Amino acid sequence: MMITLFDYTPPVSDEKVIVTDTTFNDVPVRLYIPKGQPDSLKRAMIYLHGGGWCVGGKGMKSYDFLSRWTSEKLNAVVVSVDYRLAPKYHFPVQFEDVYAVAKYFLQNSVLDQYNIDSSRVCVSGDSAGGNLAAAVAQQLLHDPEVKVKLKIQALLYPALQTIDLDLPSYRDNENMPILPKYLMVRFWSEYFTNDTSLKEAMETNQHVPAESSGLFKFVNWSNWLPEEFKKGHIYTSPSHGSSKVGQKYPGLLDPRAAPLLVDDTKLQGLPLTYVVTCQHDVLRDDGIMYVLRLREAGVPVVHNHVEDAVHGALTFITSPFDLSVGQRMANNYIEWLNENL
Prior knowledge:
Shape: globular
Order of helices and strands: HEEEHEHHEHEHHHEHHEHEHEH
Radius of gyration: 19 Å
Oligomer: single chain
Mean pLDDT: 94
């Protein structure tokens, strides 16, 4: 949290992008409007930042830089959302905030106000923001009130499931810098509650009640992971937890919190999807399984797996954390967006 506060960047316009803080549907957002080609229709992105639903924000230096760069390079309006954070606020508040912004922004009257081509709008997010982006895309698909359809979604090392925290990627990267397993478990548990008993149950992978065991088929890595990511690991069915956990924290199994926990009918019709995964990341297998699940459901997917990256690498593009792997990933991301949005 101290890093987040220290890293804050105010909304400052430059010669290429107009930057302002405002609200959409009473939710704070930072708006990036490109100055280039003022009379042409623009593309648009709703961007959802990472930080484990607990930290981060639109004003963080790395997110401000990425949104500003996206707006400039794509001639796109970027809406960076400042959703409320845990532990003060718990699920579904974070989802409700970003969904409220999406529904507001996707009105034709609002898109017209910003001279946006309604056929060229996307949602994107990293880590916890990738989780929210995937959930928003699923929800929009089945919302009769929203007429504008997303053209693409971009999910950068997203967290996508709550029920098996003993995947090969969690085992291989348990003590990896940036996002070790204990921190990811803490983020997940604090997304739902301040009650430490949930964190303790999640640490031992004994938090899913027996009556919800049917959900494990959606994240059974022995079926969904390619062989090169299994690495000799042996699949064991997770132990069941108390039914009281599911009753106290129903959000734990809610697809708006865990987008992998839906059947194929809820995935069919999703837009062209770009998924980034990092080899040295506890969330690697979440993203890989979603890629396979989406393809099985007939959704076109581009998967960029980065062998030499840790979690969060794409945001390491500003000093003092300017890394070559981050620059490479960011360039690939922007290039893909430019070709497909």
